[in-house]
Design goal:
- 70% of the residues lie in helices and 3% in strands.
- The protein is mostly helical and 232 residues long.
Length: 232
């Protein structure tokens, strides 16, 4: 009976365990997906960009199989499409209503959960963001948008539900992808930040019902402002 192969002897031989090979491919695909997803959501890879499997494989030093699996997952999330090759999705402004419908549902319930799980340190961070947004008249639109986005992202994260975080990121991608030419008036900016304070008050009291109600009203207000601006 031949002696079993030791580790040194087996080095370089093909892996004959299909389950182990598949698990390795899935791990690679998950890593490729996470890296591409992050670059798409942050607009490092811009809407309309073509994604070539061979180039991605070479840049990330992985095979084409995990790259293709990652792209298929991104397609399922609505971040890329496949028509004569892979391309990062662009969002039509006509989709604005669907984006806000999604935000109402996700942010509303996420804020309800956050009211039950927010710690004092978290509240202090949110209060600081709202107070900073009070200075909107002396900051750029980009700076204000960044603060506002961070405020809502933090609340969704405080829900403790990673699925809400993932879905919220997708709504934010489609919203900012539209490049909406909407500038809030001074009065509108003041109203929306006052609504932030109502959300904060509900969070500080642990009032889940009020937190969800104020979050939904806030998203609905933003929706009306955007829709009115687009309708002229």
């Amino acid at each position: 009976m031949p002696a079993p192969l030791d580790r040194k002897t087996t080095e370089g031989l093909p892996d004959r365990d299909p389950a182990r090979k598949r698990a390795g491919t899935e791990l690679l695909a998950a890593d490729v997906h996470a890296r591409l997803r992050s670059r798409i959501l942050t607009f490092e890879i811009k809407p309309g960009t073509r994604l070539v499997e061979d180039k991605i494989s070479a840049s990330l030093e992985v095979g084409r199989t995990p790259v293709r699996e990652a792209l298929l997952r991104l397609q399922g999330e609505g971040l890329v499409s496949r028509e004569k090759g892979w391309v990062v999705e662009s969002t039509d402004a006509a989709s604005i209503d669907r984006v806000f419908e999604s935000r109402v549902a996700i942010e509303g319930y996420a804020t309800r959960l956050a009211a039950l799980r927010t710690a004092p340190a978290d509240l202090r961070e949110l209060i600081a963001l709202v107070e900073e947004m009070d200075g909107f008249e002396t900051m750029s639109r980009a700076a204000l948008n960044q603060l506002n986005r961070h405020f809502h992202q933090r609340i969704v994260a405080l829900s403790g539900n990673p699925f809400f975080v993932e879905m919220h990121e997708r709504t934010q991608f489609h919203y900012w992808n539209m490049r909406l030419p909407v500038l809030f008036t001074r009065e509108q900016a003041m109203v929306t930040n006052e609504q932030h304070r109502l959300i904060l008050s509900a969070l500080s009291c642990g009032d889940a019902n009020a937190a969800e109600r104020h979050a939904r009203e806030h998203v609905a207000t933003t929706h009306r402002i955007v829709r009115d601006a687009l309708d002229g």
